[in-house]
């Protein structure tokens, strides 16, 4: 083989060896789970059952993960759930969310939730689109009750990815005991306590952190 031809082949050979080495590294990386995967919490599950009649009524937002669509809500956020007639054999719940903005003005939005898991009533899909557009399923949001007090004093609501989180309470502020219980449950369920924003209550013109 002529020297110049041999020298011409060498770069290609080196590239081939580099490609093989890169593939080997990728294969090894895929074979070894990442630290994030190893430390990931188990898949989130909804509670075993929700009595929709007991769950109905007004709940106060005790805590949440901050999110874009509530960016204008400064305080006093509530969610009111009302039983609606079934539609096509599907259980439905009316949803009305209300909050107060930084200037003291109320903000409200109405939607409808449909029960996805009829065995437990713990997994729902919520739409805030106009009624004539609610057939669009991809615009719905998952609403999973992932923890619920036996007396329905508080509830933890999220969705499979844990990207969104709400802690609901029947009273404007959680008691110290209930808050400790909720924090323990959030930890058990794999939520990041550093992201949790606790609600405030306005009394005599001053904002007071939830106790």
What is this structure's SSE topology?
Layout (H helix, E strand, L loop, with lengths): L2 H29 L3 H5 L12 H4 L1 E8 L10 E13 L2 E11 L5 E10 L7 E5 L13 E8 L5 E5 L6 E5 L6 H13 L8 E2 L1 E4 L2 E4 L2
Antiparallel strand pairs: 1-2, 1-8, 1-9, 2-3, 3-4, 4-5, 5-6, 6-7, 7-8, 10-11
Tell me the CATH architecture of the largest domain: Beta Barrel
How big a fraction of the residues is strand?
A: 35-45%
Tally of DSSP helical segments: 4
Helix-strand string: HHHEEEEEEEEHEEE
Q: Please compute the radius of gyration using only Cα atoms.
A: 25 Å
Mean pLDDT: 81
Structural class: alpha+beta
Question: What is the CATH top level name of the largest domain?
Answer: Mainly Beta
From the N-terminal CA to the C-terminal CA, the straight-line distance is 84 Å
The total number of structural domains is 2
Write structural notes for this entry.
24% of the residues lie in helices and 36% in strands. It has 211 residues and is α+β, with helices and mostly antiparallel strands. It folds into two domains: 37 residues; 158 residues, Lipocalin (Beta Barrel), CATH 2.40.128.20. 19% of the residues are buried.
């Amino acid at each position: 083989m002529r020297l110049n031809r041999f020298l011409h082949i060498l770069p290609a050979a080196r590239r081939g060896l580099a490609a093989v080495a890169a593939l080997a590294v990728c294969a090894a990386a895929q074979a070894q789970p990442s630290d994030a995967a190893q430390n990931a919490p188990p898949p989130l599950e909804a509670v075993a059952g929700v009595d929709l009649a007991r769950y109905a009524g007004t709940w106060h937002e005790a805590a949440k993960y901050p999110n874009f669509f509530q960016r204008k809500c400064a305080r006093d956020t509530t969610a009111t759930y009302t039983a609606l007639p079934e539609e096509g054999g599907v259980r439905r719940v009316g949803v009305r969310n209300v909050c107060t903005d930084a200037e003291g003005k109320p903000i409200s939005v109405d939607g409808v939730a449909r029960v996805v898991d009829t065995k437990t009533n713990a997994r729902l899909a919520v739409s805030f689109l106009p009624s004539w557009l609610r057939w669009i399923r991809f615009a719905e949001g998952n609403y999973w009750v992932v923890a619920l007090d036996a007396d329905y004093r508080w509830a933890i609501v999220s969705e499979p990815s844990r990207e969104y989180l709400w802690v609901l309470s029947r009273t404007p502020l959680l008691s110290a005991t209930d808050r400790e219980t909720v924090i323990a449950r959030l930890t058990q369920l794999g939520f990041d306590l550093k992201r949790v924003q606790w609600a405030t209550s306005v009394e005599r013109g001053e904002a007071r952190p939830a106790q």
